[in-house]
């Protein structure tokens, strides 16, 4: 049953990411090239520091005349909703609805820091819903 499935069972691992010092133009190009709506933002050691969405890029474009040269850190959201790999998909669905967000970042704890290992989106959940029919 899909509601009992965990994110580790349902999702491919791997994360499209960028460094917090990356310029927004580079991040935007990566999103377009990979046809993705989000980049996970990491520090130099690969630990989670934020998330950058297409909406954040639009905000930067409207607010900063030289948006393309601004660092990702200036417009990313540092408040990322995360879950461990053993989280059930039903819990992820609840989080998405309760927090009115489109995705969560799956993380592994390492020495008190969070290493991103995957992203689970509402689109992923709908995919699994349809395949479970």
Describe the overall structure:
This protein has 133 residues and is of the alpha/beta class. It has one domain (2-131): CBS-domain, CATH 3.10.580.10. The protein contains five helices and six strands; from the N terminus they run H-E-H-E-E-H-E-H-E-E-H. A three-stranded mixed sheet has the order 1-2-3. Strands 4-5-6 form a three-stranded mixed sheet. Strand 5 and strand 6 form a beta hairpin. The longest helix has 11 residues, at 24-34. It is globular.
Q: What is the name of the CATH superfamily?
A: CBS-domain
CATH class (first level) name: Alpha Beta
- State the distance separating the first and last CA atoms: 10 Å
Largest sheet: 3 strands, mixed
Compute the number of helices: 5
Highlighted features:
5 helices; three-stranded mixed beta sheet; 133 residues; globular; 25% strand; alpha/beta
Describe the secondary-structure layout.
Blueprint: H1 7-10, E1 17-19, H2 24-34, E2 38-42, E3 48-53, H3 54-63, E4 82-83, H4 89-99, E5 103-110, E6 113-121, H5 122-131
Parallel strand pairs: 1-2, 4-5
Antiparallel strand pairs: 2-3, 5-6
A few lines on this structure:
The protein has 133 residues and is α/β, with parallel strands linked by helices.
């Amino acid at each position: 049953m899909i509601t009992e499935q965990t994110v580790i069972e349902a999702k491919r691992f791997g994360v499209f990411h960028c460094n917090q010092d990356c310029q927004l133009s580079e991040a935007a190009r990566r999103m377009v090239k990979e046809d993705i709506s989000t980049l996970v933002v990491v520090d130099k050691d690969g630990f989670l520091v934020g998330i950058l969405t297409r909406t954040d890029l639009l905000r930067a474009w409207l607010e900063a005349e030289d948006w393309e040269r601004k660092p990702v850190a200036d417009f990313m959201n540092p408040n990322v909703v995360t879950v461990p790999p053993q989280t059930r998909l039903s819990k992820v669905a609840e989080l998405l609805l309760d927090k009115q967000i489109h995705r969560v970042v799956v993380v592994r704890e390492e020495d008190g820091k969070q290493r991103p290992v995957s992203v689970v989106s509402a689109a992923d959940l709908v995919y699994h819903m349809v395949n479970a029919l």
